[in-house]
Write a structure and sequence with these properties.
alpha+beta; 3-stranded mixed beta sheet; 5-stranded antiparallel beta sheet; 153 residues; globular; single chain; 37% strand
């Protein structure tokens, strides 16, 4: 049996989050929204599809929901976080070099509430970034999420 879902491109993780479709919300593709994520936190994203059938229920975040269309205040909050991204990328690359890690940092984003930092990188092999994470947490004063992606991602 299939389930109707809405897909939201999360600004924080850069991944499409599938949540149960709710026709009462009244959203369309391209809308900026604030939604509840798997950790019960508010996040910002862009609607990529609405009311699509899926049979892969493991991908659906049933605990998640769209809370509202993004207001001008929400958009300003996201823009404020995005102003720091270039500096964050430069600092992350310098720290990776400092620890002589063979990784290419290419994306950084802040959570909607600004408490978490998500950094995405590529690397040929596994990377032991424990010391890097500690220094990044001290420098940025945020909870750090590092994600390695490869050709399949």
């Amino acid at each position: 049996m299939s389930t109707k879902v809405t897909g939201i491109l999360s600004e924080f993780s850069g991944q499409i989050i599938e949540i149960p479709f709710n026709e009462k919300v009244g959203i369309k593709v391209g809308d900026a929204v604030v939604f509840r994520d798997a950790d019960e936190c508010e996040e910002y994203g862009i609607v990529k599809f609405v009311s699509r059938d899926t049979t892969d229920k493991e991908k659906v975040l049933f605990s998640s929901a769209i809370l509202r269309l993004a207001s001008p205040h929400d958009l300003q909050k996201v823009e404020t976080h995005n102003e720091n991204v270039e500096q964050t990328l430069r600092s992350s690359k310098k720290l990776a070099s400092k620890y002589d890690l063979d990784m290419q940092v290419f994306r950084a984003s802040y959570s909607y509430d600004g408490k978490k930092l998500h950094v995405t990188f590529t690397a040929e092999d596994r990377v032991d970034f424990r010391e890097l994470v500690k220094e990044m947490a001290a420098l940025f004063k945020k909870q750090i999420y590092l994600r390695q992606v490869g050709p399949r991602d």
